C-alpha cells in the first residue's frame, strides 16, 4: 500500500513539474507576440536562456547608452569583474558615443535594439529593417564593428522581425521569464533585487536598463545583486558566450566552485 502511494505521489509531482514548464513556455510565447506553434517548432533564432546545467548567467542592459548612468554601471561591473551585454538604441549612440566606446574597450558585448525603440507589432518589415540597419551603422561608426545579436523593443517578435534577423544573420535575444526586473518603471531598489535574487537559475538572462526616465534605481540594485550572485558562485557571461554554450561549442570558462 505504501509503495502504491509513493508511486502515485511521484507521478503527481512529475505531472505538476511538466505543467509548470508548459505554462512557462506559453507565457513566454504570448509575452513576445509569437505564436505558440512557432515557439514549439521554430525557435532556433530565438534565445531565451542559456544551458540549465551550468552555473552561468547573462546580464543585459537595454535602451542606452546614457551619458551618466552607463558609466556608473560600467564602474560597478569593472569592480566585480563582470561582463555584460548592452542592447543600444541607434539614436542614443549618435548623441553619446563615448560610453559605447568604453563598453567595447572593457570587454562587454554590444547588441542592436533598433534606432528609436519602435513598436514592431505596428511597424512594416521595411521600417524594421531601416531601424535595424541605422543602428548597425551607428555602432560601426563608433567602434568599427556591427552587433551580432538583436533584441527587439518590448521583446516582441513576429514574422517581419524574424525575417530581418535571418537576413542579417543575427540571433533574437529575449530574456528569462522570471528575470524581467521592470527597473525602467522604478519599482524600488528592493523589488529589483528580489526579482533577480529570489528567482535566479542557471542559464538565466537578466533584463535591466541603463537608460530610464528620471532617477535610475538600477545602479543601487546592482550594488547588492552583483556581489551576492558572485558569492553564490555564478559566472557572468556575454550573450554570445551563452549562445555558444547553447550550441554545445566548447568555450573555456573559469567556473567558480559551488
TrEMBL record:
InterPro entries: Glyco_hydro/deAcase_b/a-brl, NODB_dom, Polysacc_deacetylase_ArnD. It comes from the Bacteria. This is Polysaccharide deacetylase family sporulation protein PdaB. The lineage of its organism: Bacteria, Bacillati, Bacillota, Clostridia, Peptostreptococcales. PROSITE patterns: NODB. Residues 55-237 form the NodB homology domain. It comes from Tepidibacter formicigenes DSM 15518. GO terms for molecular function: hydrolase activity, acting on carbon-nitrogen (but not peptide) bonds. GO terms for biological process: carbohydrate metabolic process. CDD domains: CE4_NodB_like_6s_7s.
Amino acid at each position: 500500500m505504501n509503495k502504491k502511494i509513493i508511486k502515485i505521489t511521484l507521478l503527481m509531482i512529475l505531472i505538476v513539474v511538466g505543467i509548470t514548464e508548459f505554462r512557462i513556455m506559453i507565457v513566454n510565447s504570448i509575452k513576445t507576440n509569437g505564436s505558440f506553434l512557432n515557439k514549439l517548432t521554430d525557435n532556433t533564432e530565438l534565445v531565451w536562456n542559456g544551458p540549465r546545467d551550468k552555473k552561468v548567467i547573462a546580464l543585459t542592459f537595454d535602451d542606452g547608452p546614457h551619458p551618466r548612468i552607463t558609466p556608473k554601471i560600467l564602474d560597478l561591473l569593472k569592480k566585480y569583474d563582470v561582463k555584460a551585454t548592452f542592447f543600444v538604441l541607434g539614436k542614443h549612440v549618435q548623441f553619446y558615443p563615448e560610453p559605447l566606446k568604453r563598453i567595447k574597450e572593457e570587454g562587454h558585448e554590444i547588441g542592436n535594439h533598433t534606432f528609436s525603440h519602435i513598436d514592431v507589432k505596428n511597424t512594416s518589415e521595411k521600417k524594421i529593417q531601416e531601424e535595424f540597419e541605422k543602428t548597425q551603422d551607428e555602432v560601426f561608426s563608433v567602434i568599427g564593428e556591427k552587433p551580432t545579436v538583436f533584441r527587439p523593443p518590448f521583446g516582441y517578435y513576429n514574422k517581419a522581425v524574424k525575417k530581418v534577423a535571418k537576413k542579417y544573420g543575427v540571433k533574437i535575444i529575449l530574456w528569462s521569464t522570471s528575470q524581467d526586473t521592470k527597473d525602467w518603471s522604478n519599482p524600488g531598489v528592493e523589488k529589483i533585487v528580489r526579482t533577480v535574487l529570489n528567482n535566479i537559475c542557471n542559464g538565466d538572462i537578466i533584463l535591466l536598463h541603463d537608460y530610464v526616465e528620471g532617477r535610475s534605481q538600477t545602479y543601487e540594485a546592482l550594488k547588492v545583486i552583483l556581489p551576492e550572485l558572485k558569492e553564490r558562485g555564478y559566472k557572468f557571461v556575454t550573450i554570445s558566450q551563452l549562445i555558444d554554450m547553447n550550441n554545445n561549442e566548447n568555450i573555456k570558462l573559469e567556473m567558480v566552485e559551488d
